[in-house]
Design goal:
Strands 5-4-3-6-2-1-7-8 form an eight-stranded mixed beta sheet. The protein has a five-stranded mixed beta sheet with strand order 9-10-13-11-12, sandwiched between helices. Strands 16-17-18-22 form a four-stranded antiparallel beta sheet. The chain has 643 residues and is α+β, with helices and mostly antiparallel strands. It is built from 22 helices and 22 strands.
Length: 643
Amino acid sequence: MAAIQVLPKHIAELIAAGEVVERPASVVKELLENAIDAGASAITVEIRNGGVSYIRVTDNGCGIAREDVPKAFLSHATSKLHTAQDLDAILTLGFRGEALASVAAVAHVEMLTRQSGEETGTSYAISGGEQVRYDTAGCPLGTTIVVRDLFYNTPARMKFLKKDVSEANAVADVVERIALSHPEISIRFLREGRQTLITPGDNKLLSVIYSVFGRVFAEGLLPVSYALDGVEVTGYVTRPTSARPSRSMQYFFLNNRSIRSRAIAASMENAFKNAIMIGKFPGCVLHINLPAQFVDVNVHPAKTEVRFSDERRVSACVYYAVRSAIETDETRPKADLSKVTQKAKPVAVQLQMVEDDTPKAKKQDFWSKMPAEDYRQGAQKQKPKPPIPSPAPEPPRSTGGAVRLSAAKDNPFAPQQEEPDVINAFRKRQQEKPAPVPQPQPAPPVQTTPQPAPRPLRLIGEAFKTYILCEYDGKLYIIDKHAAHERIIFNRLKETKKEDARQVLLTPVQIALSKDEYNVILSNLAVFETCGFLIEDFGNNCVVARECPMLLDTDDVQDVVLEIADNLLSQKTDIQAEKINRIYETAACKAAIKAGNKNSTAELKALAERVLYHDDVRYCPHGRPVLIEMSRYDLEKQFGRIQ
């Protein structure tokens, strides 16, 4: 066995730094927590290259005394704990005294700080854990910390960092969570020299939600305020009608600290039972306040997981708080009459159901839609052209032999005059018939064997408003109408050209997203455009959809985009073809008729014929079977007719 030796100081510091500083977002989180603990009311965060090359955090807090500045960069040096009993009731965000020491071990750090009673501030620089500069300087009240070249001395850690965009998104998520946890602090975030977030600091949570998530998300919230057995829950939850297809917009804070808790999330979702659609999830920004001695935050290195002394009491308070907010909501969904009038069919179209013996053009299937340009062209072809009026005869002119000739014919009493030789030659040429031009003979028609017409299909009925029962070619078929229609739309989306498959929305749809959803959509705008969507950035974690596929209903655009974003986030591959298929699958699922919908007999029969007369509809895009067949032999065997 090798001899045991004590690690050098710089190696031990690098190991300790790896437990605290994982990426630029970890550095920003630690510096923001220090600024909040210093009593700052305004904080500015600036990053470049995702925070790898440059991070600057400026606050107007109490600052650090000149003699304490070098101590702040020592391991386990803190002003927030003094005795072991202080660990039983931690009220500050930071308490371990490892943040600045860990950051200084793997980066170049500069600090400018000044307290209110000092005339000049302190300038301090440390690199790789070694002091570089310690001097006086002029600076405003508070503290400014600049971190450059993160992981410059640990290339192994640098190698595992993600792209600058991904690292910057992680930093933005940390800044947003800090802003939501402290609405009394004005937080400003600069990313690559551009301001992307600023909160007013007016101590109103709704103002911060509006700044972070935008107007659409903020307008669909319900206020929450409840207290039970020493536990207080405040904040906002989404209305049941504003539910989302994922849990990405659920934020929980305990004593102004961002946490993750499955028990609290489950209690919040249970409060929405019988008030929200299956497959939808509520969003929330909830603050939980309880005495510090009833919770332990010294569990996880990132301090995001906590332990409660009585978890049931906290979960029950969250449940009743959310439930009371839902039950006391007096708003009701309002019908949008403009959409109703747009979807209503004109009376003339409804009266075309009567058929006669006259041959008519083949109608499109009931599930298809026609682009506006094709509709206009078809209307122009069907419109009868007005008759062209024959030109009025010109009055006879008073000069020339031809005029005299016509006058003589029209008037028998006019004096007869000789016709000029020019006119006689012209009439002679007109009477001579030209030689016929030989026309090319058409090629003989190719003899083709006519395709046999498909056997007639007999529609039996529909079971549970979901399955179509029909008899065809001596067999009984049971067709899942949603799965079949979904596959038909999926095939049509893949076959239709991009420019012919989209429609321009009369009213653009504004969609509020989480930070991850917002970033994944902006990074896949070209993929969306290939699939018939035109999506633009609207800022504040919002996008605007201006065009969508023709087969998609405009009311489903928001749900489709949200579901696609969730699928892209869970997708591990960057293959564009697979992303396009995922988008087509989601759009087809939303556009297809649903189980439980009421359909006419003609629609059911048309759908059954489309499935049975073609072999390209056998499985839905998700792999479920479209139909089940049963022969007459199998059916009679079940009833004992055949032994």
